[in-house]
Amino acid sequence: MTTSSDATGRARALRAVPAASRAAAASRAAALNGLPAVADLRARAAATATSTGSAATDDEPPESSPDLIVRTVEIPDVGDLLALLPSADPATTFSWVRRGEGIVGWGEALRLRTSGADRIRAADQAWARTVGRLHVLDEVRLPGSGAVAFGSFSFSPHSAAGGVLVVPGTVVGRRDGRSWLTTVHRVAETPSRGAHLPAPAPVGEPGPVTYRDGALTPEAWRSAVAGVVRRIRAGEVAKVVMARDVVARAVAPLDVRHLLGRLAADYPGCWTFAVDHLVGATPELLVRREKGLAACRVLAGTIERTGDDAADLRRAAELARSSKDLEEHELAVASLVRALRPYCASINVPDAPFVLHLPNVMHLASDVTGAVDAALGHPSTYLSHAGGGNGPSSLALAAALHPTAAVGGTPTRLATAILASAEQMDRGRYAGPVGWIGADGDGEWGIGLRSGELSASDPHEVRLFAGCGVVAASDPDAELAETEAKLRPMREALGS
Ligand SMILES: C=C(O[C@H]1C=CC=C(C(=O)O)[C@@H]1O)C(=O)O
User: Fold this and answer.
1) Are 488 and 466 contacting, i.e. CB atoms less than 8 angstroms apart?
2) The pTM is what?
3) Which residue of 5, 98, 100, 323 is 20 to 30 Å from 19, comparing CA positions?
4) Residues whose CB is less than 8 angstroms from the CB of residue 300 and which lie 6 or more positions away in sequence, other chains included
5) Ligand 1 centroid – CA 167 distance (Å)
6) How far apart are CA 112 and CA 3, in angstroms?
7) Cβ contacts of residue 449 below 8 Å, gap of 6+?
8) Domain Chorismate-utilising enzyme C-terminal: where (predicted)?
9) Which parts of the chain have pLDDT scores under 70?
10) Ligand 1 touching residue 449 (CB < 6 A)
């Protein structure tokens, strides 16, 4: 495992401003905004640093540690969060939005990178240390206000994609009828003036899109699934989640905002996310931690929708009775509960799944909740609003839960080894945890499904992924059809 961090070019550019004019500009700006001047903030920062102790880390000497001031102010209702995003750049555009609420961000104040088997836990610990160097002025105090890092992690510990946490330079949030703006800057630098939101910028259309096979042709993938079914029937494993990829190429450079806008409009009940080139709308919540409560939505077991409401109701009833899908679902719930139990004082597991209706498919779904055990001596000790440690963070919980049997299989180690050789591809960040974490460790982590990875080298390309749980009763043709249904959200967002 490795971690590293860097501050932005924006921060470096600001450092070039002479100190005297910085201070004068800051005082003017602060006076205009009715906010504390930089000198006051520096004094508060010094006081905070003294009271919270040193934030030195193994991999970052304290003298190079960026001390950041994070300031959240309430603003009038922003309306459509996604419409605020100023840039098409998928590296510095961030989203976590559901039913019009959530957070969006842009720019980059700090980036933490991790890799290897411990990539999620390492990011959690690096964030806990970073929090000790942040000076947060938050007048809103809702989940997603104050300091926030967006994150995304590879499915596999062996993937070069690794993991990332990014603190954007600007975050805007909306929840319960309130909106807020968070800006981040270095202690030594001038804050940008006022609570300005960017002027709306035109969003680029992809134009015609063509598709090519990813790692395997559909026929080769079908055969790979048939091989896995044979291994399951021979008793090697109970379940393997098999995924495939297709590569989409657009005539125009892809604008991440176009994809986000379409996904959020078509799949409002899903979490529409963008973090470090991964974009999608996932229906599956790996874990949310909020005020001591962990909540997870487990999905496994799928049937396609027909578009005819009466027929879909019959299909929903069929799904709820399907022994193949119920087995797949039960394995996913059991693996999640097993992994969550050590972190919770109590857990609530529904007796039977409900059927979640999405525009393209229906899933068997179970909402599992647990009371996070704050007394556990987890190595990451976040400051709660009350000022004490508050147990394993949302990211520590995500690290414990990933990969669930909904994206890996059962038993985990053998199933993930089988899927890696049968799929013949690196899943990258697909099916890994994606979401955000706050300074108190609360946050939300989805599973990066119904998603695509925008190419960092070719702005016209995006790699789309979809998978499905394979059990003894699986039919390879039906599984292939299921992946097509699960690719629909991204294909439709691309306009095809
Ligand atoms: C692996 C995916 O879906 C998972 C989540 C819901 C239902 C699933 C299923 O029925 O197979 C999968 O476990 C995917 O969408 O790529």
Assistant:
1) no
2) 0.86
3) 5
4) 325, 328, 329, 331, 332, 333, 363, 364, 405, 406, 469
5) 30
6) 7
7) 280, 282, 283, 284, 407, 430, 431, 465, 466, 467, 486
8) 219-486
9) 1-66, 190-195, 376-389, 496
10) yes
- Give me 228's structure tokens: 């896995």
- Using CA of residue 394, residue 340, residue 347, residue 344, what is the dihedral sign? negative
What is the DSSP code string of 287-342?
Answer: EEEETTEEEEEEEEEEEE--S-HHHHHHHHHHHHH-HHHHHHHHHHHHHHHHHHGG
pLDDT at res. 373: 85
The token pair that represents 116 in the structure block: 């290897």
Q: How many residues does the chain have?
A: 496
Query: Is any ligand 1 atom within 6 A of the Cβ of residue 486?
Result: yes
Please, what is the angle between helix 394-401 and helix 323-340, to 10°?
130
Please work out whether the CB of residue 284 comes within 6 Å of at least one atom of ligand 1.
yes
179 near 76, Cβ under 8 Å? yes
For residue 222 the two structure tokens come to 């079908």
**pLDDT tens, 331-346?**
999 999 999 999 999 9
Two structure tokens written together for 171:
């975050």
Set 189, 239, 330, 423: catalytic member: 239
User: CA-CA distance, 174 to 145, in Å (whole number)?
Assistant: 9
Atom 1 of ligand 1 has which residue's CA nearest to it? 467
Q: Is the peptide bond before 411 cis (omega within 30 degrees of 0)?
A: yes
**Residue 294: what residue type?**
A
CA distance 282 to 250: 23
Confidence (pLDDT) at 220: 98
CA distance linking residue 437 with residue 419, whole number of Å: 30
Tokens at residue 398, please? 């995500």
Please report the sign of the dihedral spanned by the C-alpha atoms of residue 80, residue 81, residue 84, residue 87.
negative
Q: Where are the beta strands (DSSP E) in 53-169?
A: 68-75, 93-98, 101-106, 110-114, 134-138, 148-153, 163-167
The alpha-helical segments, DSSP class H, found in 175-322 are 218-233, 256-266, 309-321
Active site residue 291: no
Model ipTM value = 0.98
Query: How far does CA 304 lie from the centroid of its chain?
Result: 25
Q: Which member of 284, 330, 453, 479 is catalytic?
A: 284
- The per-type count for the chain, helices as H runs and strands as E runs, is 11, 24
At which residue do the structure tokens 């955000």 appear?
436
Helix/strand/coil percentages in the chain, nearest 5? 30, 30, 35
Domains, the chain: 3-186 (no CATH), 209-271+284-493 (3.60.120.10)
CA separation for the pair 487, 150 (Å, rounded): 24
